[in-house]
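Field reference: "sequence" (input) and "structure" (output). Example, Restriction endonuclease subunit S:
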Amino acid sequence: MMARLRDVFECQITGEWGSECAENEIGIKVLRTTNFTPQGRINYDDIVVRSINESKVEKKRLHYGDIILEKSGGTEKTPVGRVVFCDESIEESIYLCNNFTQAMRVNQAIAIPRYVFYFMWNLHYSGKTDLLQNKTTGIRNLQVKSYLNENCPLPSLGEQCKIAAVLDKVSDLIAKRRRQLAKLDELVKSRFIEMFGEGNYSNVALIDIIAEGAGLSYGIVQPGDDGTGDMGVLRPVDLVNGKISTASIKYIERSIGDGFRKTELTGDELLITVRGTTGVTALTDTRFRGMNVTRGIAVIRYDRNKTNPVYLNVYLNTEESQRYIQEHTRGATLQQINLSDLRIQPIMVPPIELQERFADFVEQTDKSKAAIQKSLETLETLKKALMQQYFG
């Protein structure tokens, strides 16, 4: 059986924003799209409180099983149309959704709320909502009428329960893997503080731990068109979560890189973004030998007698280091840090033996992370396949 999505709901609840609370007024908690997680869960941290008429509160209060749809907002990389499911925690207080969203209450005589949530989540995940938004230079709006006109498959209630249970199981495992990765990252930070947090170690300028004669340079200013040659060129977007993503490396004519030999990679460097989102780092390896970087990345060729690259990479991501980078990042339309400021950035340099011991710990942790990451990717592939099987 198929049904228009709009016919699956017994009611649709528009959002409210209200006004600022007066002094000593007890306001109402309002969920915004900043409380949406990519997994379709509500993040109950940082909830705003607003003054809203009591009659509206009574009509628009959210309940367990409601689905909140983002109808305005979104970005180029994240189309509008995200959804979150109101879990049991929604009943612990009074919550409304804001005016950039609306809540949908499922008619449970014909559909299971979790099943409908996954159908709607998949509309966004599969890119369908990208085709159902008004794209402007500012805010993006979902074409709600067209969205609600989508066909939703409705097997029996029993079958919907089974499908929702399977997707819940896979989603819970994905969330567990993500938590494990986050815990390992926290473990590395804790180990760093344990080993170096109270150490009386001297600071030196970044340029003083760079290999002799290497200097500090950024890459190709105008790399040209993609797909015109065999030289890979790394961009800031290729540095993801402290790693280099190979998913969408740009390839250019090797002759363009001839004028930028200083930044041609050997596979033994540390990269740091200096334009856009500054301060993102990643270590290269032999996969990237012969590639180059764009103007948005600086190449650090460290002296291994003075610093261990794994230690240096972690240090550059400490609060202290990132604070320096952000304080020296400037620009109204394009944020960037000058190489002159980066060269003199203070770097704490403990004895190399301690750095090596810390690097060994990080590398062992990375092995655990790699196994968990592989499991996560397998689960995400499985979820994608199940979505395709259930919803087409």
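Residues 2-154 form a domain with the Adenine-n6-DNA-methyltransferase TaqI; Chain A, domain 2 fold (CATH 3.90.220.20).
The chain has three domains: 2-154, 156-183+352-392, 202-349.
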